[in-house]
Structure to design on (336 residues):
């Protein structure tokens, strides 16, 4: 019934798909799909067949068929299927290794928390006992030494806490919810109401948008940025903090600006590193973890973070987040 190039048939009649194809062509006038071809030497090979039923010039029904050898295509598909299978296997293997590494890191974090805190507690405890036992014989110089030891132990404890927090934050899963950053900033500012009131800091909040983000993580970002602004305006006359949002170079950009101590831009590349500090602990307390956490969180949200500053003239820290809609909290001249 079907012939081409003078050959009686190039189709494998044992292919179970052939009968269904012929039936479909009879009912619909055409067929296109994969079948099996037979070469002159009897070798079978995959083909893509297109067949049409039509009325010829004599008014009789005739059929035509066009076949295309798809051997190479099928080999490519088979190789691709094999590659994908191997890739899935490797991904599953790597995922298992990563999960194991995370479990080991959790175990390590617990060990750090327990094993390092224990000697610190002993130092602090025995130091208090030592002060009580020797209170009558200590002079001003030895009391100073004890205070330095006590403060160093306290600072080490804080470093451990911050390092663990940074580690957990880096491995925490991210949710993607609607977050009204205006309300979020207002909520964070309540945590600093005492410092803002005591230092008479003017806080101005511009219009802030709705974004898609992890609310808990974004709160950590604003807590750290506002905390820095409050801290570094501590010795400033007429301290002011401005929190706002703008479109910069097409990016949805947030900023927290203050008129505090500022820093030399020469060292700006160190600002967001773990345990990197641009001010001495004597001038401003801290461990150097906060801005590292900010960078980690923002980059996990596919944003970026940077700072602009000048010594004695304050600093402005920026970060970007995708998405921008009008928020519900707007306080252009508000102060807390």
């Amino acid at each position: 019934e079907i012939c081409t190039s003078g050959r009686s048939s190039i189709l494998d009649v044992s292919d179970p798909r052939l009968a269904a194809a012929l039936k479909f062509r009879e009912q619909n006038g055409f067929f296109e799909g994969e079948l099996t071809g037979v070469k002159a030497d009897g070798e079978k090979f995959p083909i893509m067949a297109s067949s049409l039923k039509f009325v010829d010039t004599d008014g009789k029904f005739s059929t035509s068929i066009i076949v295309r050898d798809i051997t190479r295509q099928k080999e490519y598909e088979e190789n691709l299927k094999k590659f994908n299978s191997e890739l899935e296997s490797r991904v599953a293997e790597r995922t298992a290794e990563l999960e194991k590494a995370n479990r080991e890191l959790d175990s390590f974090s617990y060990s750090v928390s327990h094993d390092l805190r224990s000697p610190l507690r002993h130092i602090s405890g025995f130091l208090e006992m030592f002060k009580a036992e020797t209170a009558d014989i200590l002079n001003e110089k030895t009391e100073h030494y004890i205070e330095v030891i006590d403060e160093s132990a306290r600072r080490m404890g804080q470093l451990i806490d911050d390092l663990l927090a940074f580690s957990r934050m880096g491995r925490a899963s991210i949710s993607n919810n609607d977050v009204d950053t205006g309300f979020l900033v207002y909520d964070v500012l309540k945590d600093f109401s005492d410092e803002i009131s005591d230092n008479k800091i003017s806080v101005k909040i511009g219009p802030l948008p709705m974004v898609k983000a992890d609310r808990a993580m974004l709160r950590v970002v604003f807590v750290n940025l506002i905390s820095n602004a409050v801290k570094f305006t501590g010795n400033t006359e007429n301290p002011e903090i401005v929190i706002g949002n703008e479109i910069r170079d097409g990016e949805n950009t947030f900023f927290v600006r203050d008129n505090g101590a500022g820093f030399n831009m020469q060292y700006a590349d160190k600002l967001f590193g773990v345990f990197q500090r641009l001010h001495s602990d004597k001038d401003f307390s801290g461990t150097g973890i906060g801005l590292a956490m900010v960078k980690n969180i923002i980059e996990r949200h596919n944003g970026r973070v940077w700072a602009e500053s000048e010594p004695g003239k304050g600093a402005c820290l920026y970060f970007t987040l995708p998405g921008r809609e009008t928020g519900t909290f707007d306080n252009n001249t508000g102060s807390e």
Notes: The radius of gyration is 36 Å. The longest helix spans residues 71-134. The chain is about 45% helix and 20% strand. Residues 1-8, 326-336 have pLDDT under 50 and may be disordered.
